[in-house]
Amino acid sequence: MSETHGQSGSADFDLSQFHGVFFEEAGENLANMESLLLALDETSADDESLNAIFRCAHSIKGGAATFGFQDVADLTHVMETLLDKLRRHELAVTTGMIDTLLESGDVLGHLLARHQGGAGEPIDCTELVGRIGALAHGSAAAAPLTAPPAAQAAPAVPAAPVTVPACGPIAGTRVLDIAIGPMDEPSLADHLADLFTEIPGLGTIEATDGGRAGPDRIRRFRVLTQASDADLLDLFSFHVAREQVRIVDGSADAGTAAAPAVASQAPAAAAPVSDSASYGFFDDGPGAPGPADQAPPVAVPAVSAASTKAPAAASRSAKNAERGSSPASNLEQSTIRVPIEKVDQLINLVGELVITQAMLAQTGRNLDPVIHQAMATGLADLERNTRMLQESVMAIRMIPMAVVFNRFPRMLRDLAGKLGKQVELQTIGEDTELDKGLIEKITDPLTHLVRNAADHGIEMPQDRIARGKPAGGTVTLAAAHQGGSVVIEVRDDGRGLNRDKLLRKAAERGLPVHEAMTDQEVYALIFEPGFSTANEVTDVSGRGVGMDVVKRNITSLGGSVEIDSTEGQGMRVSVRLPLTLAIMDGMSVGVARETYIVPLASVVESIHLSADDVKSVGGSARVVEVRNEYLPLVALDELFDVPREPGQAGSGIMIVIEAEGGRVALLVDELIGQHQVVVKNLEANYRKVPGVSGATILGDGRVALILDVSWLVRRARH
Amino acid sequence: MGVHDRNPGQGAAARPREYLTFRLGAEEYGIDILKVQEIRGYEQPTRIANAPSFIKGVVNLRGVIVPIVDLRLKFNIGSAEYNDFTVVIILNLGARVVGVVVDSVSDVMELSPEQIRPAPEVSSVVDANFITGLGTLSDRMVILVEIEELMGASDMALVEQAA
Questions:
Q1: What is the average pLDDT across A515-524?
Q2: Are residues A79 and A153 in contact, defined by beta-carbon separation less than 8 angstroms?
Q3: pTM of the predicted model over 0.80
Q4: Which residues of B touch A695 (CB under 8 A)?
Q5: Which chain B positions have a beta carbon within 8 Å of A690's beta carbon?
Q6: pLDDT one digit per residue (tens) for chain B, 163 residues
Q7: Which domains are seen in chain B, by residue range?
């Protein structure tokens, strides 16, 4: 229903771009389930396998329901019911069950392939659903078509429509031929079909004209229903004038005509429908929630839409025999799924190669370029190829931010409903790519931020109107590359932060605050553990709940968080993350005979230091004035207790480093150079070391420690 | 700690096991050969600030960062000199790789259960819980150590302890 689309704003955004991921995962889950089922020993089925099979079905169901593939969701739902009973040992596994489940897996594969390909033959799974349902209810010999209602088992998903009989009319069901038109816009009739399928138990509708009106501009449908003509007319008048609808009893030829008619039309129908009305009969997956909102008199959960379609497909069961291997093979896509360890091993090896290359380059520089010209050329090639190889390998782990962003429309929608607010989600830069490991770890903090923005940032509609803002608030998620990092912003146009209130709250909690603090510092207070309290719920509210955790998570990924806010206008939380955890631009610095790496992203500048720039504060603490700002001075040799030979003194280079909104001047002996370093985990074989975020291997094979700049800044502050 | 459950001297069905023996000062120690990944010469590790003195630092073992523990410093046995004969035994302890500095590696020795005597209850620098027994072969006595548990002990400071 195109007119409903977009009405609920961009929070309702198009999920179809994520179908690929779903199909890929579903395909893997199916394959997994099949191998687990095959390996299952019915005499002594172990809980682990049963749980794993259950999880496979459950994952497919969850994804299918999200994307509106209701037939898939319904089938997996009854499978899940059966599997749940098996894993709870309420039922014993039988060979029949395994056979049925395997068969279900095949059917799922076909259903998925059909959704994926957009074309292909619809499949009737009603009989199968019935059999699984019967098995779940403990009757070993499940009679086809008895179809005990799966809804009994779990009312959470409206599976009731599945019980609508598929093959042939039951008592009271009429077969009707409906002609609609003449119409100027024949595709409008597809909305009728949509609407019809929205209503559980109403019956089935299918186009008998191949989804296209003839020259007479009349659309024809065949309907199986128990409803009266008057009811049907009432329903259809949502979209077309009553006068345009003609209902004729078509039962005379129902048994014979329907199947061949459809069979010949199915290929023709698939293509045009998916173009002209993408929520039409054959392709009503995505966007299904829209129509439900649109048609309030028919208060129907949208998820039931596709399930009523399944019976319609029944008359085509003859075609099932032909549902050859071609649609199913679509599931094997142009992507390969590889265990992450294999990729990581590749990355490690490339890291080694980079180190070796750096070592060779270093050695090569000592050679006479005239005599060893060929060598120099080879080394230059090696350097270029190594770098390209490294980039390509790193790109394997990169996945788009959309994977995270796609979780939020639904969440925000539910949340807005619960809170009685109007919230729209905007996403920008979903294509921005980020390391898979980072994506996984950033999801929770981002979820928290988005929830906070909707919960505490966006005001109630009446408050917004009172402030002269549109009633609906907007939460914006934006991702973009900035140099070697990715910046993800969570913005809202809500009430923003109140500086005075934050300061007062902080003072009450005994935090060291004063009026002269910059806005940045004041806003950063909400990251203090447990900063939010109940008596602020009405205003600045609970924004502090868990914000400390958010910040800690992001910091542990080598990222940083900043807050900007204008009271009454909204707030912006910017999360800055490194592109990848594996490689980083670093500046190597020397202290006595040791080498350390400072992440280049945090280096502001480096300055030669003379003795009188350094002032002491309170005896021991030292500060240094840089551009009219006094920065705490941290001497790396003292901090790390670096052994010095007698008489050797540092030459005094100061690097200004920045993290978490604070700056520190780091005193080192010398700057050695800038280079890309492969970040190695120190904790893998050792433990976390304060002040060190990791290690890397230098060109000469030695290990150098990477400084934890956030830690240094935090330490200097306290 | 169920030390005696692990004691290879218990249980008649136990087969002979191989031990790598090494010297710390005048004492000879043996560890399960299956825990040993390789033996390397000593190279100067990268010092880790504020680590205990027996943790010499970390080295690059073909791209893996491996901590180096000097057992002589840890147990206060012998003198911690580093020369061309100083060796590092790289241990593969399940999930972790750790290097230990010893004075020298002697040999690989096969000990059948009857050659292993229970260790007497004496106080020593090595926690008695980690000594599985004393192996005897002609006139040699080898102190058999459960190296994996020793390395995982809290005073080793190799593993993060739950706060």
A1: 80
A2: no
A3: no
A4: 46, 58, 65
A5: 50
A6: 444 444 444 444 467 889 999 988 888 999 999 999 999 999 899 999 888 888 999 998 877 889 999 988 888 887 778 888 889 999 998 778 999 999 889 889 888 888 888 887 776 667 777 888 888 888 888 999 888 888 887 777 777 654 3
A7: 16-153 (2.40.50.180)
Q: Which CATH architecture has domain A340-397?
A: Orthogonal Bundle (1.10)
Cβ-Cβ contacts under 8 Å, A355 against chain B: 63
Q: How many CA atoms lie less than 13 Å away from A623 in the CB half-sphere? A: 12
Place of tokens 């993408």: A278
Q: What is the CATH number of domain A2-158?
A: 1.20.120.160
Q: Which residues of B touch A (CB under 8 A)?
A: 45-51, 57-60, 62-67, 96-98, 157-160
CATH number assigned to the domain covering A400-578: 3.30.565.10
* Backbone φ, ψ for residue A296 (5° rounding): -65, -35
Under CATH, to which class is A583-717 assigned?
Answer: mainly beta
Quote the ipTM score: 0.83
Question: Cβ–Cβ of B63/A348 closer than 8 Å?
Answer: yes
Instruction: Identify whether the C-beta of residue A589 lies closer than 8 Å to the C-beta of residue A595.
Output: yes
Give me the half-sphere count of Cα atoms (radius 13 Å) on the Cβ side of residue A466: 7
DSSP state of A456: I
B43, B47, B68, B96, best to mutate vs chain A, most A CBs in 10 Å: B47
Q: Which positions in chain A touch B54 (Cβ < 8 Å)?
A: none
Q: How far apart are CA A499 and CA A108, in angstroms?
A: 56
Kindly list the domain boundaries of chain A, sorted by start residue.
2-158, 174-329, 340-397, 400-578, 583-717
For residue B59, give how far its alpha carbon lies from the nearest alpha carbon of chain A (Å): 6
Give the Cα separation of B104 and B77 in Å (integer).
13
- Taking only the tens place, the pLDDT of each residue in A379-404 is 989 989 988 898 888 788 888 888 88
